Amino acid sequence: MRTRLRQLLVSAVALLTASSALPAATAADGDRGGHRPSHGGLSAVIRYTEYGIPHILADDYADLGFGTGWAQAADQVCVLADGFVTVRGERSRHFGPDSAPDFSLSSATKNLTSDLYFRGLRDAGSVQRLLERPAPLGPSREVKELMRGWAAGYNAWLRKNRITDPACRGASWVRPVSTLDVFSRTYALAVLGGEGRFVDAIATARPPAPGAAPKAAEPDAGAAARAAGELFSAADADMGSNAVAFRGDTTANGRGLLLGNPHYPWAGGRRFWQAQQTIPGELNVSGGALLGSPITQIGFNANVAWSHTVATGVPMNLHQLTLDPADPTEYLVDGRAERMTRRTVTVAVQDGPPVTRTQYWTRYGPVVASLGADLPLPWTAGTAYALSDPNTTNLRFADTSLGFAKARGTADVLKALARHQGLPWVNTVAADSAGHTLFTQSQVLPRVTDELVARCSTPLGRATYPAAGVAVLDGARGDCVPGSDPDALQPGVFGPARMPTLKDAPYAENSNDSAWLANADQPLTGYERVFGNVGTQRSMRTRGAVEDVAAMAAKGGLTVRDLQRQQFANRVPAADLAASDVARACAALPGGTATGSDGRAVDVSRACRVLAAWDRTVDTGSRGALLYDRFWRRLTRAVPNAQLWKVPFSAADPVGTPHTLNTSAPGFATALADTVTELRAAGIALDARLGDHQFVVRGDRRVPVPGGTESLGVWNKIEAPWDAAAGGYAEVSSGSSHIQAVGWDGSRCPVARTLLTYGQSSNPNSPHHSDQTRLFSTGKWVTSRFCEKDIRSSPKLEVVRVSQ
């Protein structure tokens, strides 16, 4: 292996030093900074191809981590540094206690609560203890080396380069990092769906004052169910995804195909970053990694491709505590009192004295004050609630991803999942060169069974569990804790045998609904409610996706080009179902007018004609898409689902129902009138092109962005906040991110097209701040350069040797 690497390094360095066609390493891009190797220490060769995509070549895992940390820092140093301030619990010190983080590593709404949580983890040694566990419970030697190398590479880049990004140029908070910092960032991602979702509730939970009432009023069951359902719904989340795998008998050459379309934030620390990582003879993988990660999370190699979608499994549960009447910081288990553990945390604050707070932890986890603003959990003299998150003992995400990177087929993907059991909140969809497909909801979930809930649920849990899969168990009973499966790595979670899994279906697809309809002809059932629901109405995006991919599979003869067409079809399922009915009902309104919610008559006749002429897509040039988007959002908010459709949902036809819009429903005409009023007030023509108002700003120009919102059901999901005062949508905030369309042709080189919608760099001074965004705007792709011959033939090839 080392002989082969030396040969490749010699070739790479020869290209750098001997070819006048290649730019000098340091002169080409001051933010990358190439350096001759020092004596000893870590080093790697980075070959950059079109769009700033690095191909990192290294001798071992530590060197690979080094090259990856260096290259990520070159593109994203400010975003990365901001995240490390977060996991150290130092945001209040540098940015003030009341500002908000970017929500990439937790849901904290203020720097102070973020710091209290992350500083508390650091003081308690939570991550340090996990690092001491032997693999597979703890990280493998390879992952530890990757993390160590990543920290060294990041630090070396800081030491040898000048920051040009105005977001942190000259900032005191940009500092070297430790391996612990890098692992802490991985830990934050693991608990993002559990403790990380309720950081404010952990930091603000306080015992009642002496003499407080022994018990608060029970939350209204209906309100609690709605609040829990909305909290764990993907409809308004900034993370989602689509992915589909096609079996060999549906493709043109008998080999598998995969289209991955994750939906993630376009700014901040939860961005993807694209690279190829190679240790000759050991590892060769290409794809996207979340910032701060040393290994690919979504990607492909010579034999298999995979993507992830955010799963419906609820990775946490609550325990309702019965407190000691004499002390609200003691709780009873089987009649015996246990004292809560107090974590006293001190946080430095900018321009002020340090802030000290106490957090309260139990055998189940931390005491929390609420599950979101609409579901308070009062801590009274008699009752409190503790949150249990099994991912707080999970540092196995990176090892799971590394197992995928080495896989030779979908069977190896399943083996990696079974061995490491490290995915906290995602499904996996995969295809391989032999024509196999895979869907599996293999995630770390508390072993909350329907039987346990029936036996141990509190009144609150009897409302929240059916509605959202959120169990609230009786914490006073020792027999009311999640049990263990014999094949589970850690106690209290489901083992691999219990995971909803579909192998070798003609297509396997997920769009953030439950596992039930991964293939509509082979429904998955029999899993516990905590995984997701069965037999309930699917989202508009799931319905549209299943319609599309089932038709593709039935047609057969599929190629990578068909996957590319699917990504940018920009079909609007909600329009195919209802736009014609809307246009006809609009045209039938007496006098072409409708009454708005303010009681005024509004002329909507122009809107009727625009909707009738609309092409039912959300391409940047589509006229009528913006009008329908604003109308549909307003209509679906105002009209209950039971009244929206004439033909209700049927589990016997879950993709085709509900259908036939009820245009006589109260609220239909009002939604039309209010939409027309809204657009006119914002100065937006009713037939405005979508791309004129759905955009991002790069430099001094707006870049139009295709795609559509969740409620419209568009595969190419795009979300932007509406700002009526500013005249329409603000910049796109989330949606399609690291897209990959992958197949094989019998050679050793995958046939892959990729697109990182927001580009490699957040630095506005980088040439890779907007180049792929412009591609995305026009529906174009990057041809992946995976094999050596393809990398070396790149007309943009730039070779950089980096070292300590």
Question: Would you spell out the secondary-structure blueprint of this structure?
Answer:
Elements lengths: L1 H17 L6 H4 L14 E7 L3 E5 L3 H27 L3 H5 L15 H14 L1 H6 L9 H20 L18 H12 L8 H6 L16 H11 L8 E7 L10 E9 L6 E8 L3 E8 L7 E3 L3 E7 L6 E8 L2 E7 L2 E4 L1 E9 L2 E10 L21 E6 L8 H10 L3 H11 L5 E7 L4 E4 L9 H7 L2 H10 L3 E3 L26 E3 L3 E4 L29 H16 L4 H8 L5 H15 L5 E3 L5 E3 L1 H9 L11 H14 L2 H4 E3 L11 E3 L6 H14 L13 E4 L2 E4 L13 E2 L2 E2 L4 E2 L4 E3 L1 E6 L7 E6 L14 H7 L4 E2 L4 H5 L5 E6 L1
Parallel strand pairs: 2-5, 9-17
Antiparallel strand pairs: 1-2, 1-33, 3-4, 3-19, 4-29, 4-30, 5-6, 6-7, 7-8, 8-15, 9-10, 9-14, 10-11, 12-13, 15-16, 16-18, 20-21, 22-23, 24-25, 26-29, 27-28, 30-31, 31-32
Describe the structure.
This protein has 804 residues and is an alpha+beta fold. It contains 23 helices and 33 strands. Strand 6 (283-290) and strand 7 (298-300) form a beta hairpin. Helix 3 packs across helix 7, helix 7 crosses helix 8 and helix 17 runs antiparallel to helix 18 (605-613). The two termini are 22 Å apart. 57% of the residues are buried. Residues 1-23 form the signal peptide. It holds the Pfam family Penicil_amidase. This is Penicillin acylase family protein. Belongs to the peptidase S45 family.
- Range of strand content: 15-25%
The largest beta-sheet arranges its strands as 18-16-15-8-7-6-5-2-1-33
pLDDT average, as an integer? Answer: 94
DSSP summary: helix tally: 23
Largest beta sheet, briefly? 10 strands, mixed
What class would the helix/strand composition place it in? alpha+beta
General form: globular
List unreliable stretches of 5+ residues.
1-30, 35-39
Return Rg in Å. 27 Å
Distance between the terminal alpha carbons, to the nearest Å?
A: 22 Å
- Tell me how many strands there are: 33
**Roughly what percent helix?**
25-40%
Signal peptide: 1-23
Pfam families: Penicil_amidase
Keywords: Hydrolase, Signal, Zymogen
Family: Belongs to the peptidase S45 family.
